[in-house]
Design goal:
The protein has four helices and no strands. The chain has 103 residues and is an all-alpha fold.
């Protein structure tokens, strides 16, 4: 049976594999640690927040972000708005639940 530590280890392994894949795909953005950032963001977007479903699409958009291309910047801003909305909705529902539990 797979335990919590195993899941964490597998998640980290997957993140590092995305880093390796991203390194070559974001190289047009110039030198630096962009592969690590792109891999980490790809892992988070595909598996934690589930805001995206295609790693290659994410790599392309991140390359655009790193190069300050309009398509990448717009994509990142839209994701930030989605994340902010999700957080706000969750906080609202928790506040409503707290109020209903303590009338």
């Amino acid at each position: 049976m797979i335990g919590d530590k195993d899941i964490n280890d597998l998640d980290e392994t997957r993140r590092l594999l995305y880093c390796a894949l991203a390194e070559g795909q974001v190289e047009r953005a110039g030198p630096g640690r962009k592969g690590e950032l792109a891999g980490t963001l790809t892992n988070a977007l595909l598996h934690h927040s589930k805001l995206e479903t295609d790693a290659n699409f994410v790599f392309d958009r991140l390359s655009d972000v790193f190069c300050v291309e309009p398509a990448g910047v717009e994509w990142a801003e839209q994701l930030i708005a989605k994340i902010t909305d999700r957080i706000s909705e969750r906080r609202k529902s928790r506040n409503i639940a707290a109020i209903q539990a303590n009338p």
